[in-house]
Specification:
With 320 residues, the chain is α/β, with parallel strands linked by helices. It is built from twelve helices and eight strands. 46% of the residues lie in helices and 12% in strands. An eight-stranded parallel barrel has the order 1-2-3-4-5-6-7-8, surrounded by seven helices.
């Protein structure tokens, strides 16, 4: 598998890959984001409630959308196997509980996760491209991806070069995403924007479109290593980007919110936003994900409360 060839993704909206000036004209020609308006709409959507009869559906839908994640230097093979077992059967006492979407690990733990998840519907996702900083040479980033894919990862979460983006070197960022997508083969590519470092919602919109133009299958908020990460206004802008991209091209891409989402209430509010902003075709693990470690536990506790009418003790769910 080559790690050097760079070619424009098929079916791009425009041939914007010729030079940096072309990309700048396109990205800076996007409508500006009214930050006050975006914050107000996000706040308004957060007040929407769902009927109690729909809450069970929302909780199960959110569970199916979770990328259950462990990204620590202390991730032993045993810890990864334990997380995989939980992802396959989140509530050991209730087999009707759906599995999560994916287990997300560092590349050197992909083989452990692949073996542990064999025969299940749960995908293995690997962070790559020198996650979380991305501060290595492109060739090294691409080899990181190749190693994870060859170990069996079906999804790759890459980080963009935020320094290049903020310096206005859009072509460099574009070409890195294209090159990464190429070496992913059949694996889906999630492009991490690290929105907390992009400063403005206009930059979030431009980075979202840049990643979509370059062929990213998902745009993702954050590495989860800095704050702020996923926020309602940022989610709003990213959902608008995939909606508008699909309207223009017919190509449906996904959004992954990662970093700081810990409660069922937050997850349900984001599902309401997905439906209201992008549409119900995005209410699927194929097009929307939560990157989380602790969210699943709260979803399980709320699910059990719906069925029993009582809150569980802290020991009802396992500690990851």
């Amino acid at each position: 598998m080559s790690t050097t060839e760079v070619a424009p993704p098929p079916g791009s909206v425009l041939d914007v890959s010729q030079d940096n000036a072309s990309l700048r004209r396109f990205l800076h020609g996007l409508p500006g984001v009214d930050q006050v308006g975006a914050e107000a709409r996000a706040a308004m959507l957060a007040t929407r409630s769902i009927k109690s009869s729909a809450k069970a559906w929302a909780i199960d839908t959110a569970i199916r959308m979770v990328d259950l994640t462990t990204l620590e230097g202390s991730d032993t093979p045993g810890k990864v196997r334990s997380l995989c077992a939980k992802g396959r059967r989140p509530d050991a006492a209730d087999p009707s509980t759906p599995s999560v979407a994916a287990i997300c690990v560092y590349g050197d733990r992909v083989d452990v996760a692949v073996e542990a998840l064999h025969g299940s519907s749960v995908q293995v996702a690997a962070v790559a491209t020198a996650f979380p900083s991305g501060r290595v040479a492109l060739q090294t980033k691409l080899l990181d991806v190749v190693d994870a894919v060859e170990a069996g990862a079906g999804e790759i979460d890459m980080v963009i070069d935020r320094a290049a983006f903020l310096a206005g070197d859009y072509l460099s960022v574009y070409e890195e995403i294209v090159a990464t997508k190429l070496v992913c083969g059949d694996a889906h590519l999630k492009v991490i924007l690290e929105t907390g470092e992009l400063v403005t919602l206009d930059s979030v919109r431009r980075a979202s479109w840049l990643a979509l133009l370059a062929g990213g299958d998902f745009i993702k908020t954050s590495t989860g290593k800095i704050s702020p990460a996923a926020t309602p206004p940022v989610a709003l802008v990213m959902l608008q980007a995939v909606r508008d991209f699909a309207a223009l091209t017919g190509d449906v891409r996904g959004v992954k919110l990662a970093g700081g989402i810990r409660t069922t209430k937050e997850a349900v509010r984001y599902l309401v936003m997905v439906n209201e902003v992008a549409g119900d075709r995005w209410l699927s693990p194929a097009t929307f994900r939560f990157g989380a470690s602790s969210l699943l536990n709260d979803l399980l506790q709320q699910r059990h409360k719906l069925s029993t009418g009582a809150y569980d003790g802290a020991d009802y769910v396992s500690v990851d």
